[in-house]
Design a protein that fits this description.
single chain; about 375 residues; mainly beta; 24-stranded mixed β-sheet; about 50% strand
């Protein structure tokens, strides 16, 4: 067979040029670049035993190492903003099974609940480290693990026992609930905020924060909220709501079920109370108003003012008293000495109110 001069050299040159172009495109992130790691493709797989560690982080690490070994430069999901570095640990998917309760626990950071449409519980975890280099932030994030405990209670807990106590990281958990959970929902956080919005198809919800705020909106199930030092806000609740603080504020808006508010030191505010109400504060003020009265009210403040606003067409029997302040009303009630009393309409419901200071029962 006849050979053309230089033909073999031309083939080698063409192959070498193509390889160089391909390598350049991969490193530049061009069309031939390797597919980016997708956190949604990783799922926690429980192993034998009651306590299992979610495998998401280890799986991602292995994939990153494999990509590097193949010559592809894999970028870690790390963001630096001001004095904070955020390391995205990805999403862990956990099957709810037949657990009667889902309990989520975190030490420092935040917990956010939203409603999803899938079958699994999806937990997106980010670790935020302040005043550190990127390398230090990555090292701290590597020590933060997500623990999953199966049983009648499905426990999802942040484990950060090995992190620095002088500069502990904040862990942000975003929990997307399955379309049909059915189980009770509990969450506890030591330092930080808990938020929950438009969650459906759960049992009773209980959220607790030691130092921080709680915000819940669009809740169908009965809900219990407690903050030792911070604020609690609940709105658009279809079931019963129980909100309490030791030091802080409680705000409730448009509550269809029975409402219970309590504070040791702080203020209680509610607008749109459509069923029974019990509100008490040791040191602080109470301000409650509604456009529709649908249950009995029992309201008391040991050392603060109480203001109640009722619709003029209420069917209610009122009994209010003060210790040191003055009672006032613009409703067709009787003020005598330290008391406000009387009946409006058929007197279907009762409103009992007491205050050490001033008491106002007004027309809304």
């Amino acid at each position: 067979m006849k050979e053309f001069p230089g033909h073999g050299k031309m083939k080698l040159l063409a192959c070498g040029t193509a390889a160089a172009l391909l390598a350049a495109m991969i490193w530049a992130g061009g069309p031939a670049a390797a597919r980016q790691l997708d956190e949604s493709g990783f799922e926690a797989k429980p192993v034998a035993g009651n306590s299992v560690q979610a495998k998401t982080v280890q799986t991602v690490k292995t994939s990153v190492q494999a990509a590097s070994a193949s010559g592809v430069k894999a970028a870690l999901n790390v963001k630096v903003s001001g004095r904070e570095t955020t390391v995205d640990k990805g999403v862990t998917a956990v099957g709810p099974g037949k657990a009667g309760t889902l309990a989520v626990t975190n030490r420092n950071g935040s917990i956010t609940f939203t409603q999803g449409t899938g079958k699994n519980i999806e937990v997106h975890m980010k670790v935020i480290v302040a005043d550190s280099t990127e390398a230090e932030a990555k090292a701290a994030a590597d020590k933060v693990k997500l623990q999953v405990r199966q049983g009648t209670t499905l426990g999802i807990e942040v484990e950060d026992g090995n992190v620095s106590r002088t500069n502990p990281p904040q862990v942000a958990l975003s929990v997307t609930l399955p379309q049909k959970l059915g189980a009770k929902l509990e969450a506890e956080l030591n330092n930080g905020d808990i938020s929950l919005s438009n969650v459906k198809n759960t049992g009773t919800i209980k959220l607790k924060v030691n130092n921080g705020d709680i915000a819940a909106r669009g809740v169908v199930a009965d809900i219990v909220l407690q903050a030792d030092n911070g604020s609690v806000a609940v709105a658009d609740a279809k079931g019963a709501a129980d909100a309490a603080v030791v030091n802080g504020e409680v705000e409730a808006t448009r509550i269809s079920g029975a409402l219970a508010l309590k504070a040791t030191n702080g203020t209680l505010t509610a607008t749109g109370v459509f069923a029974a109400l019990k509100a008490s504060v040791v040191a602080g003020e109470i301000d409650i108003s509604t456009s529709k009265l649908g249950g009995n009210w029992d309201v008391s403040s040991a050392t603060g003012d109480v203001t109640l606003a009722l619709p003029a067409h209420s069917s209610v029997k009122v009994d209010g008293k003060v210790m040191l302040g003055e009672p006032e009303t613009d409703l067709p009630l009787t003020v005598k000495g330290s008391r406000i009393s009387g009946t409006i309409g058929a007197g279907t419901y009762t409103v009992s109110a007491s205050s050490l200071s001033d008491l106002s029962i007004l027309k809304n």
